Amino acid sequence: MIRPLFALSVLTTLAACSGLDLSPDEQRQLNAALERKREGGWVSLFDGQTLDGWVTKGGRYDGDARWTVEDGAITGRVNEKGEGGLLFTAKPYTDFEVELDVRMDEPFDSGIFLRMAPAGKGAQVTLDLCPNGELGAIYADGFLQHNAEARKLWKSGEWNHVTVKITGSPYHIVSTINGTALVDYQQPAGMEGFVPTGLLGLQVHGNRNDPPQNKVQFKNVRILDLAPTSKELFTKDADGFVTPTSWGVANGWKKLFDGSSLDGWEPLGAKSADSAGYAAKDGVLALLAKGDSETLATKEDFENFELRLDFKISAMANSGLFLRAARDGSNPAFSGAEVQILDDFNWETKTKSTLKPWQHTGSLYGSIASGEPAVMRALGEWNTYELRYVGSWLTTKLNGKVLYSADTAALTPEQGEPFAKRAKTGFLGLQRHAGDVQGEAYAWFRNVFVRKL
């Protein structure tokens, strides 16, 4: 069974576009699958009732505006002195897309602030409905791009749907309003003083001449945290070892393997550390041919995360990456998930067997075939995995190639329980499950980093 999600997505599209005759139950299932796909990592920033998860300090332009929740919307007004201010997310972001609905009394000056920090510059997409104000201009201690004609896109007195996406460094900002392009701005190279990561902010600008009762309101605020697009997250030395840059560190990338010990890991089922079957030396973690542990697990649990690591294997190697595995002694491939690592080149010939499509390297074991067998490099060469697991959505890249990006909740595994019944959080692990290997070790790992989302 290969990529059932995508067949379901096609059927959903056909149903929507061609009037396909579906039973009510089929339509409900399709609608649910489409909604899960649309969610795909989107996270709500506003619960509709409180300002939990928001703060009023932490950016370049703090202030004392009045922030409340009214009619299920974040509501901002000037204070009694006519002063404005910002409401920030408590969590910083780097590359992301935000969507929200906005309604403003007129005149009023507001905006959406990106990558805000106390020291250094971010950027603003203006929402200025004052006389001579601009909608959709880009501002950062001065106008970077004007947008004098965009005001005609605003629906006065109504809710307006706004999206803003920022990626890269120098950054690229793309915004829409009510489904129409609002701004597309590429920051020129060489502009100094801008921070690579920071808070998302909503603004009350403050204007003593505006009616004090006027307000701006935001609802349906959601964010999609994107994998940073800058190539400056890591630097690589001549030997292939990588180190997070200051931007990588600011984005939360942390080392999972220190290069010389198993600190932060535990070999499950081992009688002793010496008998476990793992060795750490010179920046490389080796899975030994002899040992009594089948899983090396992180001591920390993970829910939403990005993981990157390098691996290489010898002939007849059989290993894998465990994701969100339970600590109850059950099979981690099915209590959580397993992304396969296998000697695809020799396995079938030497074992005189036929692999399932979902048993090849890169596959989601029991569920999705990698579909890209040529991506795997020759035995003894280093490969790179990059994985992103948010909610039920899993994306797997091997050597820079996306193998699949799928909603695990929509899968019907050929082996194992449905993912909806599996652990939502758990350890990350390396599987020590060799075949008929030769030599002291059969799989090696390095440059193991994780980023919690």
Any descriptors?
single chain, mainly beta, Jelly Rolls, 3 domains, 8-stranded antiparallel β-sheet, 5 helices, 30 strands, 41% strand, elongated
Please explain how this structure is put together.
A hairpin with a 6-residue loop joins strand 7 (109-116) and strand 8. With 453 residues, the chain is mostly beta strands. It is built from five helices and 30 strands. Strands 1, 3, 4, 6, 11, 12, 13 and 15 form an eight-stranded antiparallel sheet that branches. Strands 18, 20, 21, 23, 26, 27, 28 and 30 form an eight-stranded antiparallel sheet that branches. The protein has a seven-stranded antiparallel sheet with strand order 2-5-14-7-8-9-10, with no helix packed on it. The chain folds into three domains: 4-39; 44-225, Jelly Rolls, CATH 2.60.120.560; 234-452, Exo-inulinase, domain 1 (Jelly Rolls, Sandwich).
Oligomer: single chain
CATH architecture of the largest domain: Sandwich
Query: Rounded to an integer, what's the Rg over CA atoms?
Result: 25 Å
Number of domains: 3
The 3D shape can be described as: elongated
Strand segment tally? 30
Q: What is the distance, rounded to the nearest whole angstrom, between the alpha carbons of the first and last residues?
A: 30 Å
Q: How helical, in percent, are the residues?
A: under 10%
Assign the CATH topology of the largest domain.
Answer: Jelly Rolls
Average pLDDT metric: 87
CATH class of the largest domain reads Mainly Beta
Structure annotation, total helices: 5
CATH superfamily of the largest domain: Exo-inulinase, domain 1
Secondary-structure content class:
mainly beta
